[in-house]
User: Fold this.
Amino acid sequence: QVQLVESGGGLVQAGGSLRLSCAASGRTFSNYAMAWFRQAPGKEREFVAVINWNGRTIYYADSVKGRFTISRDNAKNTVYLQMNSLKPEDTAVYYCAVDLRLGVVATLYDYWGQGTQVTVSS
Assistant:
């Protein structure tokens, strides 16, 4: 059974940093793309970042480029999201997702975590 567990969310002031982690279990994910999405209250789930199986292909949403960094450790079946220079508009529930295919559309992904709340105060 595939399970994704996010951690690292919390409350931070604008300009601060957080590091999210997502640990995957249930199978080997070394050949899976791993992604982060987020959903703010009243808004649709939106793409944040994705990394392919070997870390050589990475995409970011324009809104986070230069501030967020996605990385992965295949030995630990874990994907990370380092978030710097956080803004109040980054406030959302952040979800990790995995799939064999690399993409930026939420409907592509079959496996999702439960989400972790990130709140950025102004």
